Amino acid sequence: MKTKVAIVEDNASMRQIIGDWLAAADNLEAAGAYESAEAALRELPARQPEVVLMDINLPGADGIQCVRQLKQKLPETQFVMLTVYEDVKRIFAALAAGATGYLLKRASRDQLLQAIADVRAGGSPMSAQIARKVVQSFREDAVAEPSQSLTPREAEILKMLAKGLLYKEIAESLGSSTHTVNTHIRRIYEKLHVHSRSQAIAKYRKQ
After folding, report:
1. Which parts of 26-180 are beta strand (E)?
2. pTM higher than 0.70
């Protein structure tokens, strides 16, 4: 089954380029391209995309506001920000609003398609420059240990990840579905401010 991907981008040229990339991918299906947050808020709930590629700097309501509102209507949809902004404040604001990934617009076609695949697989893709800024920010801030914010079930799943169990094995052990485990792992990534299994395990082992 193809993954339905929508684009929210006010730049017509960029919208066309990304649209062409998606159209050329056999496993993806276009779910609309919108030039404003208002148009996306009006149309996307009915389209039910699995992934939305969202620009931040939109006319009217910005992309962060758009994600915050759409996430309430489309809780299962994954939002990947596509932007020129690299400042930590915008990155955290986007993630707090409900975004799962954050890519710079200079990302290549292959990087963009891989990000879509990663987010569908339960990951939180970020451009390398963005991931480094996030890590540096947390190194600089004196914050509570990340594991303290995890629920008991999330801490249990993180422990299983550290033991090397596969998602399917974790689901079987908990008597749950792989989809539910993916959701828990995505929340673990968000709380720990990491974007890969290895980074989550590394933080767990430091505790």
Report:
1. 28-34, 51-55, 78-83, 99-104
2. no
Neighbours of 118 (CB within 10 A): 19
At residue 10's C-alpha, the angle toward residues 2 and 76, to 5°, is 40
Q: What is the CATH number of domain 143-206?
A: 1.10.10.10
Distance separating alpha carbons of residues 177 and 85, to the nearest angstrom: 37
Place of tokens 């299962």: 76
Domain ranges of the chain: 3-137, 143-206
Instruction: Give the integer Cα–Cα distance in Å for 131 and 167.
Output: 24
Residue at token pair 């974007």: 195
Query: Is the domain 3-137 a CATH 3.90.1570.10 member?
Result: no
Name residue, tokens 């617009």: 105
Alpha-carbon gap, residue 124 to 186, rounded angstroms: 7
Residue 78: exposure state from Cβ atoms within 10 A (0-12, 13-18, ≥19): buried
pLDDT in tens, 42-97: 999 999 999 999 999 898 899 999 999 999 999 999 999 988 877 777 888 888 88
Q: How far apart are CA 141 and CA 18, in angstroms?
A: 36
